[in-house]
């Protein structure tokens, strides 16, 4: 039966120990264990170890390695259960050990998908311009289940969404541009949808805004867009046909009929 002849501290880790054994007057390196395993099993010089006990100790140590690896991974930021599973699988950890460590970490409250999802929602609300749909996708990508996600998103109130959408919309609509005001509105709506806000909150914000574009600025925009259309179409058309094509192009760009007629009269010749 192998006997422990020497226990030494590893050079790279003061919390791991090398266990040396002797059997039939032959000393050899047996295995290494974490400090906690060393204490739990009361490993000491002169102790006799059965093959079954050695296997049990190594099993426990392997499990402990997975646990410490997981705790280190969780120490950088909160993680979802699926994130941890994916991480351990990439490290080629056996499924049995993954199940054990997941169970232990949940018991110790170090892994909690409910707390994780709520914390992520609150953080995104405070630090980003993301809407609820983008946050929902992020939670789904992290392996959270639908009921849990819906509960977490309750921490992103309609009032908070309205405030963010209004701020983004005003900033966009007040910026200088050569597009029509209608084009600007459509662009704002598209941007907000891409940021993950819903039609409900976007529509309510847009309808509540009292932002109006300066008449001269709108006319400058139609002149800019209209001259480009004239240059484009006058190569093949003139007179009535040119006017109709320019008009149609400006309508599509969202300009009002009054401004279009004024532009046509001032910039498109009959000849």
What do you see in this structure?
Helix content is 63%, strand content 9%. It is mainly alpha-helical. The protein has four domains: 49 residues; 43 residues, Winged helix-like DNA-binding domain superfamily/Winged helix DNA-binding domain (Arc Repressor Mutant, subunit A), CATH 1.10.10; 51 residues, Winged helix-like DNA-binding domain superfamily/Winged helix DNA-binding domain (Arc Repressor Mutant, subunit A); 53 residues, Arc Repressor Mutant, subunit A, CATH 1.10.10. A three-stranded antiparallel sheet has the order 1-2-3. Strand 1 and strand 2 form a beta hairpin. Helix 2 crosses helix 4 and helix 11 crosses helix 12. The radius of gyration is 34 Å and the shape is rod-shaped. It starts with a strand and ends with a helix.
Distance between the terminal alpha carbons, to the nearest Å?
111 Å
Weakly predicted, low-confidence segments: none
CATH architecture call of the largest domain:
Orthogonal Bundle
* Mean model confidence by pLDDT: 91
Keywords: Cytoplasm
Main location: cytoplasm
Pfam families: RecX_HTH1, RecX_HTH2, RecX_HTH3
InterPro entries: RecX_HTH_1st (IPR053926), RecX_HTH_2nd (IPR053924), RecX_HTH_3rd (IPR053925), Regulatory_RecX (IPR003783), WH-like_DNA-bd_sf (IPR036388)
């Amino acid at each position: 039966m192998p006997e422990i002849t020497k226990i030494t501290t590893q050079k790279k880790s003061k919390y791991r120990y090398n266990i040396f054994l002797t059997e039939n007057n032959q000393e050899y390196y047996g295995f290494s264990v974490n400090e906690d395993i060393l204490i739990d099993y009361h490993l000491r010089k002169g102790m006799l170890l059965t093959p079954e006990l050695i296997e049990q100790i190594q099993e426990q140590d392997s499990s402990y390695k997975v646990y410490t690896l997981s705790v280190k991974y969780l120490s950088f930021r909160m993680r979802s259960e699926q994130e941890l599973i994916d991480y351990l699988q990439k490290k080629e950890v056996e499924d049995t050990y993954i199940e054990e460590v997941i169970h232990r970490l949940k018991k110790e409250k170090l892994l909690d998908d409910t707390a994780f999802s709520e914390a992520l929602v609150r953080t995104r609300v405070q630090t980003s311009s993301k809407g609820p749909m983008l946050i929902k996708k992020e939670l789904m990508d992290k392996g959270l289940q639908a009921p849990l996600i819906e509960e977490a998103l309750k921490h992103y109130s309609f009032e908070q969404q309205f405030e963010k959408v209004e701020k983004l919309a005003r900033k966009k609509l007040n910026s200088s541009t050569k597009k029509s005001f209608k084009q600007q509105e459509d662009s704002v709506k598209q941007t907000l949808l891409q940021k993950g806000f819903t039609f409900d909150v976007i529509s309510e914000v847009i309808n509540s805004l009292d932002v109006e574009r300066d008449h001269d600025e709108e006319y400058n925009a139609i002149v800019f867009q209209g001259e480009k259309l004239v240059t484009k179409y006058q190569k093949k058309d003139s007179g009535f046909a040119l006017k109709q094509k320019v008009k149609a192009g400006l309508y599509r760009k969202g300009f009002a009929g009054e401004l279009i007629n004024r532009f046509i009269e001032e910039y498109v010749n009959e000849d």
